[in-house]
Design brief:
Length: 749
């Protein structure tokens, strides 16, 4: 690169005179068309390009430098954006075709220029070598790769020159390049408002794609040219005179429409050339800009319609409502001499430049801006608005689907065959694999990006060529969920994980059922769920899943199940006997309808009692019992008149009896108890109440719901102290969270 460095100074480089002439012409055009020109910058770029391409020749045989020079000239004349773009045009092929590196360019020039050339190099590498059928995709790819809008501008100029010199290439290449240009570059140029460049591209394409029609139209136009020129002159002359009289400064001329649009009219209307009436248009370009210019356009329009009868439905006002690419003009069609229809376009000089040069010209008329970066930012914003404007005339899918990647939302990825796929930024080979096909994703085991192996979590970049390696044995890895970004990949992987889970669960349940029946265990699902909880599983499904996938030993479950079955049985037994006891007691206490009696200080529910009719004792009286011959105990008042006789003569039959309410004042108290529903809780409760505190239970009702236990206890207690001790004790039972006294006996007691 030492040699290149000296070349840049210019002393040792011999340049053929014809190219020096071309360079001078280029610089002159720069001075005319650009706002600022760093001539040395451009000269330096020329010298490097000349030297780098010194051994290369074009297909036509001339020195290669002729091409970059021509591209730079097109850029200045037709796009005219800035001098960095001119230098980029001069150097656009050096990194791709010669030994010059990007680093060298950024060192000897600057990073910005290097960045543009990098974009140009990548872009041609990304798709020019491939056969891509969908122009839409390439358009997206181009824009996604163009971090700097000048990459696309230079690309347009490059393409136009390639089309102009297409004759040197073999026919099959001509056709391929021409159709790519027609489907890709021409619509894109139109979108950016490069009207005249778009027309040139289309006309050149027509020549290579439909040579017969091209020939028919060009000869047809040539044959009628004199006639047409005479007619136009006859139309223009009086108009020019009139406009001059009214003090306008203007340019007026007639021009044929571009060949491709005539061709389209012929095919669309299915008419020969002779029958297409709007082959040409008259154009009036007025001096003066701003609102004065606008007013002038309308005044000229009114003068024209004084002279010629207009066709109202052909009138278009693109001044008040410009096209999305910035185009402004008034269009009208009038009846000229001989009754021929004549289209007239009225516009100011500024509107004209925007119509021809689009974005770049629009920029020229913008107010002064400070920095280069800010200028670029504003342009990019403008371009984005332009491309995203939903109101634009053919803002069909192109604009809607289209995102200038200035925001890096999407990347464009190639298959090894050259098919293009769109993915969100951050996508990985796994996302790509699933996008290509679910089965590819399913069996994907590795990936090559641009020929090199990468991890499956690798973040892809626009233009990457990705090859997915699959294996029939491979299945999705649950870890993939952590790095995939597309909905499709995520949902497919999740679906697979869930499916595997369900399979493991089903298997786990089968294993359990087989073992359980062998061990003679039979549990309901809710019993199983309780065991799962006790074994610290979140639910039964997880338990089966872990058994099914070998994470948990089914024998441990069998053991737990046996233990819990035993406990259940014991608890059930306890509770059954307790219940029986209380029910018997309740029956006896209530069915007789009499107050309970204490006989020899104890409750005897199995002894029949009756009240003596001689003294009719009532509760509260001091009483004694007399055992009759039939075995029944008769209750007498102590003050009964027969009492002395009975006590003295039949002392062996006298039994000490007391009102149980009297000796041990019993009143009914109801408690509400709440806690966890666990095995044996009811027996613990009754145990505490009846055995420890010797309290009689009148009734117990319990309900359990979703693991929560709730019980109502109706008890006989002697006094408040007794009740408090009882509550205290119940609270200490494991699993009981709350004990409350009912103030009144509810309906449920
Ligand atoms: Mn080129």
């Amino acid at each position: 690169m030492i040699e290149a460095s000296t070349i840049l100074k210019g002393n040792d480089l011999k340049v053929e005179t014809q190219y020096l002439v071309l360079l001078d012409e280029l610089l002159e055009l720069c001075r005319q068309n650009l706002r600022t020109v760093d001539e040395e910058f451009i000269r330096k770029a020329f010298r490097l390009s000349y030297w780098a391409h010194r051994n290369d020749r074009r297909a036509s045989g001339e020195l290669y430098i002729a091409h970059p020079l021509a591209v730079a000239r097109i850029y200045v004349e037709q796009i005219g954006f800035d001098d960095v773009g001119v230098a980029a045009a001069l150097l656009h092929d050096v990194v791709e075709d010669t030994e010059i590196s990007l680093e060298f360019i950024s060192e000897t020039f600057d990073d910005k220029l290097a960045q543009i050339i990098d974009g140009l190099t990548k872009m041609s590498g990304a798709f020019e070598s491939r056969d891509i059928t969908k122009a839409e995709n390439v358009r997206k790819l181009m824009l996604s790769m163009a971090s700097d809008i000048r990459v696309i501008f230079v690309k347009f100029a490059d393409r136009l020159h390639n089309m102009q010199t297409l004759g040197s290439l073999p026919p099959h290449k001509q056709f391929r390049i021409a159709s790519e240009t027609l489907n890709l570059f021409a619509p894109l140029a139109h979108r950016f408002g490069f009207h005249s460049l778009k027309n040139q591209l289309e006309d050149l394409c027509l020549a290579y794609i439909h040579p017969d029609e091209y020939h028919e139209i060009t000869t047809g136009l040539r044959n009628t040219q004199r006639d047409r020129e005479q007619y136009i002159a006859g139309f223009i002359d009086p108009l020019r005179e009139r406009l001059s009289e009214d003090g306008f400064t203007f340019d007026i001329y007639g021009r044929s429409k571009n060949l491709y649009s005539i061709y389209r009219k012929m095919t669309r209307q299915d008419k020969p050339l002779q029958e297409i009436y709007d082959i040409f248009a008259i154009r009036i370009v007025l001096e003066g800009d701003g609102s004065k210019g606008k007013e002038d356009c309308w005044r000229v329009y009114s003068i024209i319609t004084d002279l010629f009868k207009p066709i109202p439905e052909r009138f278009r006002d693109f001044i008040s409502v410009p096209k999305s690419n910035g185009y402004q003009s008034l269009h009208t069609t009038v009846f000229g001499p001989e009754g021929r229809r004549v289209e007239i376009q009225i516009r100011t000089q500024e509107m004209h430049e925007i119509a021809e040069k689009g974005v770049a010209a629009h920029w020229k008329y913008k107010e002064q801006v400070n920095s280069d970066d800010k200028e670029m930012d504003e342009l990019l914003t403008w371009v984005r608005d332009l491309l995203e404007d939903p109101e634009s005339e053919n803002a069909t899918e192109f604009v809607r689907d289209f995102r200038l990647n200035l925001y890096d939302e999407e990347i464009y990825i190639f298959t090894p065959r050259g098919d293009l796929f769109t993915l969100p930024t951050g996508a990985t080979p796994v996302d790509f694999a699933y996008l290509v096909h679910t089965q590819v994703g399913f069996h994907c085991i590795g990936a090559k990006v641009n020929g090199k192996m990468v991890p499956l979590s690798y973040r892809l970049k626009s233009g990457d060529q990705v090859e997915i390696i699959t294996s029939k044995k491979q299945t999705p890895n649950p870890d993939w969920i952590k790095f995939v970004v597309t909905q499709k990949a995520r949902s497919r992987i999740r679906h697979w994980i869930n499916q595997k889970r369900r399979e493991a669960q089903t298997h786990g349940r089968e294993v359990w059922e087989k073992r359980a029946s062998r061990a003679n265990i039979s549990l309901t699902d809710s019993e199983l769920a309780k065991i799962a909880t006790r074994l610290k599983f979140p639910n039964m499904e997880q338990l089966f899943y872990e058994i099914g996938s070998g994470l948990f030993d089914v024998n441990d479950l069998i053991k737990s199940a046996k233990a819990s079955q035993r406990e259940e049985e014991e608890a059930r037994h306890d509770e059954d006997s307790l219940r029986l006891q209380y029910e018997t007691f309740l029956d006896s206490a209530q069915s007789s309808g009499k107050p309970a009696l204490l006989i020899d200080g104890e409750l005897h529910t199995d002894i029949a009692t009756d009240y003596a009719t001689c003294c009719n004792p009532i509760p509260g009286d001091s009483v004694f019992g007399f055992l009759s011959r039939s075995g029944m105990i008769k209750i007498h008042r102590v003050s009964c008149r027969n009492a002395p006789n009975l006590i003295l003569n039949r002392a062996d039959r006298i039994i000490s009896v007391d009102w149980s309410r009297q000796k041990d004042v019993q009143f009914v108290a109801a408690l509400r108890v709440m806690g966890e529903d666990r095995v044996g809780i009811l027996s613990d409760l009754t145990q505490v109440v009846s055995k420890n505190l010797k309290t009689n239970i009148r009734s117990i009702t319990i309900s359990t719901d979703d693991g929560v236990f709730e019980g109502n206890l109706v008890l006989f207690v002697s006094d408040l102290d007794h009740l408090r001790r009882l509550i205290d004790r119940i609270k200490r039972i494991e699993g009981i969270h709350g004990v409350y006294r009912f103030e009144e006996q509810g309906d449920d007691s």
